[in-house]
Design goal:
- The chain has 120 residues and is α+β, with helices and mostly antiparallel strands.
- Helix content is 22%, strand content 21%.
- The chain contains 3 helices and 5 strands, in the order H-E-E-E-H-E-H-E.
- Strands 1-2-3-5-4 form a 5-stranded antiparallel β-sheet, with helices on one face.
- Strand 2 and strand 3 form a beta hairpin.
- The structure holds guanosine-5'-monophosphate (5GP).
- Guanosine-5'-monophosphate binds next to strand 2.
Length: 120
């Protein structure tokens, strides 16, 4: 459907993506513009726009995303050295796609958490 967001369309396999995991509640696929050697997006099937829109009934799905992240980090060989999980929210958080998703980043040392400094 034309009014569906980009990640809804990937969830529904209307747009191709390199899937690396698929469960009953979410999919994971490689970011089209990777910011690290491993950059995977973990996306719930349910189109929750932002963290601000999370409801109590989403608790299990959101917890499940961490289980998928844990398993993928191991599968991608980055669990032991470490990795970063990021969920951006709205304008100041740098969110671009308004379908909640978790970034799994790793494969080399990722540096400071924020590039712009304490108030950058
Ligand atoms: P956000 O900034 O919303 O947290 O992250 C959105 C992410 O989606 C970005 O890292 C961007 O590179 C990725 N992205 C945008 N369009 C596509 C696409 O069509 N396919 C894939 N695989 N990733 C995308």
């Amino acid at each position: 459907m034309a009014d569906q967001c980009l990640f809804c369309r990937i969830v529904q396999r209307e747009i191709p993506a390199t899937l690396v995991a698929e469960t009953e509640d979410c999919v994971a696929f490689r970011d089209i513009s990777p910011q690290a050697p491993v950059h995977v997006l973990i996306v719930p099937n349910k189109p929750i726009p932002t963290v601000n829109d999370v409801s109590d009934e989403d608790e299990r799905t959101l917890g499940h995303m961490f289980i998928v992240a844990r398993d993928l980090a191991k599968k991608e060989g980055i669990a032991e050295n470490g990795f970063r999980l990021i969920i951006n929210c709205n304008k100041h958080g740098g969110q671009v796609v308004y379908h909640l998703h978790m970034h799994l980043l790793g494969g080399h040392a990722l540096g400071p958490m924020l590039s712009g400094g304490a108030h950058g």
